[in-house]
Amino acid sequence: MLPALNNVFAGLGTMDEQVTFGGADLDRAAHIREDAIGLSAAWSHPKVGVMAVWRGKPLMSDGPEPDLIWLPSDHPALSHGVEKPIFLGLTKTSEPRFAIDLSAWAEPADESNAMAGFLDPSRNGAACLPSGTSFADMRANMGVLSHADAGNAAMARGILEWHRSHRFCARCGQPSEPIKGGWSRKCPSCGTPHFPRTDPVVIMLITHGNDVLVGRSPGWPQGMYSLLAGFMEPGETIEAAVRREVMEETAVTVGPVRYLASQPWPFPASLMIGCAGEALDTEITIDPVELEDAMWISRERCMSAMSGHDPEIRPARPGAIARHLIDMWLQDRT
């Protein structure tokens, strides 16, 4: 690649790789997925590591700055898995990594205390787990996990959630079976293959001069505002989706749109596509089904809010792409 182009692509990649859940550092080693002997050898490798996930929560170390825990493949906790483990890939030193869903395991205490259905700060432990570890919610810990841990956990949670919700063939309704190391399913009845899905979502930094457009959904914690976002529809470009969503939710017309960064969002299986758009007008008429409130805030007020000094607006959560895009704007990097 020419040096000039290499520099351009390197710069674009840096934006994405700074986003939480975008830092998975495993070689996915797709060539091993269809190799039954290779998968068996990987599972029995002396340095294999298995990510245990219970009801969407990966196993992490306890404490304010948790690490992902990788168990040996013969650990007794893994016997509670119902389906085959998912082959995630290889580390930089060629150590195999798997993930397994332990949601059917009844022993971990279910002490969920979700904040209005928004996040779950509880920890769930079991007697046979390594000391100082428990299952923890990724959304509640995304701001403190390392970049690589967050990305690897997002990969595992996303594929496991797909298996959980796609156990039956969409063509004939019969139970399907995981194949290719867990990266596909196949119906033994009609032979239809099924592949993991990712739902594209646009999230947009809409500005007008010195102001940015923010909104809040019904049921969000008091004072929480964020950038507007919405699912793309079939036959729609990213730019069209940005304009449609902003118009539907606020009646604001958007002109030029450009891509900024993306983020895997495994709740359950979205890809957040971060864009910047320029508003052509500023009068807001909210859709009360989608939004409880929306408003324009100045760069100065936004900076104060992100610093925790605004009495009405809470800082956007560290780790969310909304915060990443807002920080880019405040730092003139858009």
From TrEMBL:
Domain of life from the UniProt record: Bacteria
Biological processes annotated in GO: NAD+ catabolic process; NADP+ catabolic process
EC number annotated for this UniProt entry: 3.6.1.22
InterPro entries per record: NAD-cap_RNA_hydrolase_NudC, NADH_PPase-like_N, NudC-like_C, NUDIX_hydrolase-like_dom_sf, NUDIX_hydrolase_dom, Znr_NADH_PPase
Top enzyme category: hydrolase
Domain Nudix hydrolase per the UniProt entry, residue ranges: 196-321
This protein's UniProt keywords: Hydrolase, Magnesium, Metal-binding, NAD
Catalytic activity, reaction form: a 5'-end NAD(+)-phospho-ribonucleoside in mRNA + H2O = a 5'-end phospho-adenosine-phospho-ribonucleoside in mRNA + beta-nicotinamide D-ribonucleotide + 2 H(+)
SUPFAM superfamilies linked to this entry: Nudix
Gene Ontology MF terms: metal ion binding; NADH pyrophosphatase activity
Transcription regulation is among the record's keywords: no
Hydrolase recorded as keyword: yes
This protein's GO CC annotations: cytosol
Cofactor: Zn(2+); Mg(2+)
Signal peptide: none
A Pfam family of this chain: NUDIX-like
Family per similarity comment: Belongs to the Nudix hydrolase family. NudC subfamily.
NCBIfam families: PRK00241.1
Name of this chain's protein: NAD(+) diphosphatase
Native species: Pontivivens marinum
